[in-house]
Design goal:
The complex is a heterodimer of chains A (232) and B (365).
Chain A: H1 4-22, H2 27-62, H3 67-85, H4 111-142, H5 148-163, H6 166-172, H7 184-219
Helix pairs in contact in A: 1-2, 2-3, 5-6, 5-7
Chain B: H1 3-24, E1 33-42, H2 46-53, H3 58-77, E2 84-87, E3 94-103, H4 105-114, E4 121-123, H5 125-142, H6 150-184, H7 186-192, H8 202-219, H9 231-261, H10 278-302, H11 310-353
Antiparallel strand pairs in B: 1-3, 1-4, 2-3
The chains are: A mainly alpha (232), B alpha+beta (365).
Chain lengths: 232, 365
């Protein structure tokens, strides 16, 4: 029962979604299942929040190394959650003033937008910006023009990087008109439109075949590894 | 005190000294100004609300009108807090509140010039504090480039906590409220959140009960026993995702990409006069040939059921070259994206916070 019922739930849900694309009468099933899916996925956030709280509370109770940071994580989590859930500082939508919670969380000047603008944006974008340094240093150490493949990768990266910046225009802008195709900005476009498109297209076709094969294995009950305990 | 702590102390002291010095020069730094605007919304007539709500059913109308009255009362004191001012006058009741929009410092200076006692445009302390906090977070994360330190760890912990709550709130207001609560408790959602909500159908309500049951089963995982119950909603997610992805990937990736590769290998490009442009035609033909050959060669490389020898081996080798070019382009794009983000953060520090540059002419003409 612990394995058979979940397997049948997956099969029924999956086939309902698939058939809704092929049978006009079953079109509404797809919508219903998609809505249920979205709601279950949204409730999964509660599970994620619960797991986060559980993990950090355990860390706190054990006084593990860095438990003070767990207080910051939990505190910021709870404060953000309360502000967002109760729409603190948000006025109703002027079109529906009778509905107290009709206003959008993104209204300028609200506590929620303050958190977004002054916490989420700087924190996340700086975190990603930091990767610029690590990518550059890793590339410097790892990239060596040892063979044809490595040379192709390096040269393409340089063409794309320079071709999309002002440096590329300055470097090759003096090329005569008849050789304008060799200017870095034009080469970059050519590489993207032809070689990059071909490579990406093959990758996408490969992914689609892989997804279809894996999906069918799950829907026919051949692949049960997702239930845990191997393929059996 | 360790050597690293001393280094951090020196860096911090120099930094604070520089900021203090910057604050004393010229216009100073890091302030946010806001302009006050008055928003007035007319509350709907109670009779009109009742007559509109009477349509679906008698019981629904009773609950909606009761909830609407409650909501009106709550709106006056409700989530908006102290800054909202409600006025209820006779039947044509209205509610008004003040909103504060951010304006450039230049606008504040102009308003002060006209009337030094004006209060329409003022310094916003919450947003100014937010700006300084954002600058601190930005520098705290950049400090990791030197070494791991408590400031970075604080910022890192905040990212985890705030992001988790952010996506939870988005899921709640964008999915759970309109879809699940809108179907199961339409009266409540209509009166408090979405007055334009359409009455749910029976099938929608049944499906949302199913969603709620599956959701509760999923939360079972948090309990010490009976974790296997959460496998049911997981099964639903796995099955629906598989069904959805099979169709969408085959349709948009496999079929569409294969169809887009079926290109003419000889192309004729004509100019405005209708004459064939030989040079452009030649280039377009070469591009199409290279594209088709590239896709076939890359697929040959991915095809592992045949040994990569002979023609297939040659094609696979060409496929690897194409893939290397693709990865090089992807690498270039990734680096460019990160550098663009870095530039945006540096612009924030030097423009919004330190007021050292002014690319948008917000402080000087």
């Amino acid at each position: 029962m612990k394995r058979i019922i979940p397997m049948w739930i997956a099969i029924i849900g999956g086939f309902a979604m698939m058939l809704s694309s092929f049978i006009p009468l079953a079109e509404s099933w797809g919508e219903v299942f998609a809505n249920v899916f979205n709601v279950v996925a949204a409730i999964a956030f509660v599970l994620g929040a619960g797991s986060l709280a559980k993990q950090h509370l355990e860390k706190l109770s054990r006084r593990d190394a860095g438990w003070g940071y767990s207080i910051i994580t939990l505190g910021s989590f709870i404060v953000t959650l309360l502000i967002g859930m109760f729409k603190i500082g948000i006025h109703p939508n002027p079109n529906f003033p009778q509905a107290a919670y009709s206003g959008s969380n993104n209204t300028e000047g609200s506590a929620w937008s303050w958190i977004y603008e002054y916490m989420i944006t700087p924190l996340t974008s700086t975190m990603f910006a930091l990767l610029a340094f690590f990518v550059a240093s890793a590339a410097f150490r790892a990239f060596r023009a040892k063979n044809t493949e490595a040379i192709l990768l390096l040269v393409t990266a340089f063409i794309v990087l320079l071709g999309r910046t002002f440096a590329g225009v300055v470097l090759t802008g003096w090329f005569p008109e008849w050789a304008s195709g060799l200017r870095l900005e034009n080469l970059s476009i050519y590489v993207m439109q032809v070689f990059n498109t071909a490579g990406n297209r093959a990758i996408m076709i490969g992914i689609a075949l892989g997804v279809a094969a894996t999906g069918l294995r799950i829907l026919f009950g051949i692949d049960r590894s997702w239930l845990g305990g191997g393929d059996a | 005190m360790t050597r690293q702590a001393k280094t951090w102390l020196v860096i911090g002291a120099v930094f604070v000294a520089l900021i203090v010095a910057r604050g004393m020069i010229g216009q100073g730094l890091g302030r946010v100004y806001v302009k006050r605007t008055e928003v007035t919304a007319k509350l709907p007539d109670a009779a009109a609300v009742n007559s509109a709500a009477a349509a679906p059913s008698a019981s629904a109308s009773a609950s909606t009108s009761a909830a609407t009255t409650a909501a009106s009362t709550q709106a006056t004191a409700g989530p908006s807090g102290a800054s909202s001012q409600a006025t209820t006058q006779s039947s044509a009741a209205s509610i008004s509140w003040q909103e504060w929009k951010q304006v450039p410092p230049l606008e504040f200076a102009a308003a002060q010039k006209v009337n030094a006692a004006q209060t329409e445009i003022t310094l916003s302390w919450p947003r100014t504090i937010g700006l300084w906090l954002a600058a601190f977070f930005t520098l705290a994360i950049f400090s990791f480039l030197y070494a791991d330190n408590p400031c970075y760890k604080i910022a890192e912990s905040l990212v985890v906590g705030v992001s988790a709550a952010y996506w939870g709130v988005i899921g709640f207001w964008d999915t759970l409220v309109p879809k699940m609560f809108g179907a199961l408790t339409p009266g409540l959602v209509k009166s408090l959140v979405q007055p334009s909500l359409v009455a749910p159908e029976m099938l929608q309500q049944i499906s949302m009960v199913l969603a709620l049951v599956l959701g509760v089963m999923m939360l079972w995982r948090l309990l010490p026993r009976g974790g296997w119950i959460s496998a049911w909603p997981l099964a639903f997610i796995v099955g629906v995702t598989a069904g959805l992805k099979i169709v969408s990937h085959v349709e948009s990736d496999l079929m569409a990409q294969a169809a887009a590769t079926m290109k003419p290998l000889v192309v004729s490009v004509t100019d405005a006069s209708g004459a064939t442009n030989m040079w452009d035609s030649w280039w377009a033909s070469v591009a199409n040939v290279l594209l088709v050959v590239g896709v076939i060669c890359c697929l040959a490389y991915f095809f592992f059921s045949v040994q990569h020898k002979g023609v297939v081996g040659g094609a696979a080798r060409v496929g690897i070259w194409y893939l290397m070019i693709t990865f090089g382009a992807a690498f270039g794009f990734t680096v460019m994206g990160r550098i663009a983000l870095l530039a945006a953060r540096l612009e924030f520090l030097f423009d919004d916070w330190l007021w050292l540059i002014d690319p948008n002419h917000f402080r000087s003409l």
